[in-house]
Amino acid sequence: MEIKLYNTLSKTKEVFKPLKDGEVSMYNCGPTVYDFAHIGNLRAYVFADTLRRALEINDFRVHQIINITDVGHLVSEGDDGEDKMTKALKRENKPLTLEAMNEVATKYFGAFVNDLESLNIELPEKFPRASEHIQEDIELVTLLYKKGFAYKISDGMYFDTSKFPNYGKLGKSTDDKSTNGIMNELGSKDISRIAPNSEKMDAKDFCLWKFDTKLGWDSPWGKGFPGWHIECSAMSRKYLGQPFDIHTGGIDHIGVHHNNEIAQSEACYDQPLARFWMHNEFITMNNRKMSKSSGGFITLNSLKNESISPIGYKYWLLTAHYRSPITFSMEAVLGAQNALIRLMTSVSQYKGQNDNGSAITSYFERFMNFINDDLDTPQALALVWELIKDTKHTDANKLATLLQFDRVLGLGLAEVPKIDPGAELEALPDEIAALVFAREDARKEKDWKKSDALRIEIETRGYKILDEAKGFKVVKT
Ligand code: AMP
Ligand code: ZN
Question: Which residue in 58, 131, 184, 258 has the fewest CB atoms around it within 10 Å?
Fold first, then answer.
């Protein structure tokens, strides 16, 4: 079956064919581990995971890399401002040393992996860390310098964009109408408006190696640390080769980070870096990109405090196409979670009946058509509901079909507990079903205190959970 994916490079949906038969190499720009990830950041990895699952259901073996930026990312997308990791060291009252930086990075990297796991995201083959690839960065900059693409000024080594005629071929981050008016972290709309370093030959030239006499690594040009973009050129080539198939990130990466990655890698090795460039749109809040500086620092934990599970948030994301912006509000995510609970309730009941069904071909084909059309998850979710309401099929076959869909949607439906069919669940009010599944989540996490509290809450509302050998039953008392 043909898969079409939107390629930012050609600005069209293209039929996807990997370089190597049956295998796909994919690089997802990873997080800067200077703080917890906010749910805007996590959209990038839910999107990458959905893409990976879509490729896998099409029988591709996916080699996936997510890098971990633990050095070199300045607070602006350009070359100004403080290094984000240094900022974290100050915030956490740690000494300005590489060891302390490593400690902070390891802590937030761990939190990131926990977030991915609670979102039922399949982990990549590798999470290479920028600080462990300094030699590879130095080799790249050395080659660029030898080939005449780099120059040195007082604060570092810079890429000379005038030597790379195709510079900027991905376009600007703000090209897309939907992102007009969305500011970057400096509050600037366009990278060219960022005050240029006075010694830079052109505002678009970017840092390859930043000098720092206090913190960093030795290099042929002076002590310091790599520029943010160089790590992705070095690590993607090391683990996936050049060119590789798919490169992803949020749309804010298009204008600067990805154009810079392309310039460095292609100038160095005279080969394209990646064939498909794919970008997810933002989660917005108050008409701006959700970000730390816009005051919207919502994490999976803050959602949990509002009784929203990570999978409830994931369901909400899937209701929008990855190339559409989505506006955050607690009500919208709660609404999506309620839909998820109804879906889980149906799955539980189907499981309680019989689980020896087989997937319904007509539904599965339609599902694959939606997914293979540039990951149309909103249509795929609409199909889930069409199937649940369809009375022509047996519960066993519906269950088998939903479990196939879930190979891409990744909502963890295979783990939904079985509910005894005699439990009159049709009549179970939403809030009781929500409490029942929240109790299941607490039990999975072995949080017995929370699961007991939820059981009591359910009982005070006139229902009782009867645990059985396989699954459980909810009855009205
Ligand atoms: P960073 O840690 O800043 O490099 O960001 C990690 C990923 O999150 C990148 O792919 C960003 O493009 C993406 N990202 C950041 N903010 C948002 C947002 N509000 N909505 C969607 N993606 C975002
Ligand atoms: Zn990158």
Answer: 58
- The domain total for the chain is 2
Domain that residue 424 falls in: 417-477
Locate tokens 């990895």: which residue? 45
pLDDT tens readout for residues 393-404: 999 999 999 999
Nearest ligand to the C-alpha atom of residue 256: 2
Tokens of 129: 């860390």
Inside any domain, residue 43: yes
In a domain, 341, yes or no: no
Peptide bond into 272 cis (omega under 30): no
In tens, the pLDDT along 319-361 reads: 999 999 999 999 999 999 999 999 998 998 898 777 789 999 9
Which domain CATH number covers 183? 3.40.50.620
Point out the ligand 1 atom lying closest to the alpha carbon of residue 30. Answer: 6
Q: Is 43 in the pocket of ligand 1 (CB under 6 A)?
A: yes
Residue 343 covered by a domain? no
* Best mutation site among 252, 287, 298, 317 for ligand 1 pocket (most ligand atoms within 8 Å of CB): 252
